[in-house]
Amino acid sequence: MSEIDEKSRELIKTRIISKLKDIKSFPQFVIETMKKLNDPESNAADVAKSLSRDEGLVLRILKLANSAAYGMSRNISNISEAIALLGYKSVSNIILAATVYSAMDKGLAGYALDRGELWRHSLMVAYTSRHLAKLTGKVGTEDAYVGGLLHDIGKVILNDYVRFGYGIIVKMVEEKHIPFTEAESQVLGFDHAMIGEILVERWEMPEGYRIAVAYHHKPNELPEDKLKYQPLLDVVTLANTICLMLGIGLGADGLQAYMFPEPIERLGITNFDGLFSEMVDFVGNVSNDMGDMAGL
What local confidence, expressed as pLDDT, does residue 23 receive? Predict the structure, then answer.
């Protein structure tokens, strides 16, 4: 196949849009729990009551709470106490990670990613984003984590269509020297960032996460009225590039990853080589934590 004709391209776009319409929102108990976590008038008992409908999540939160409380004189066995110890933001992120895990823990042949690689990459970008946020102080650490976790969610939807046009996309990348995402868009009418943005919006998540997903391959093109999200976008963009440079979830598009200098400058990072060396150690140190997050 040397090219996709206009009729086939329009059919692909129609099917992608149809598939997006079929994507379900989060389970009702997840939506209810997230609302309570964002409600300033709710307390840990309210959150625990909503969360108690998922035994697996309760056990995971208790495990993480006891890990965080290591060295205390007693174990934490009460879910309300665990929620209070971990904090609402951390609990919210645990629930989110558990919810998207099943979608991401698949093989994506269109992106040359084996089973679990998208999940591993996304979770590592989440951890790295949170670490960069803490280092730079430019954005909230937990917001950075969520932006990193969701940045490639669009690949789950676009995978089958990328596989269909893979040869053409790769040929365009090689011959025209354009980014994989641009070739995606030219061939399919969408790229995975655009699809991810639609998903995040459909899930009614905060606008900042939608921006991080939509622009993580073009951090210098943020509209002026969205510049308040620039630090979050820069952190996620840089974290994604670092993880790709370290070979984490490289896939078909990772080889074309570009290191934008502007996010580094905007984040106030003056010694990137030193930061990168630090990140090599950081990635190794969080491997155990990532294992704990799998299979929720």
Answer: 65
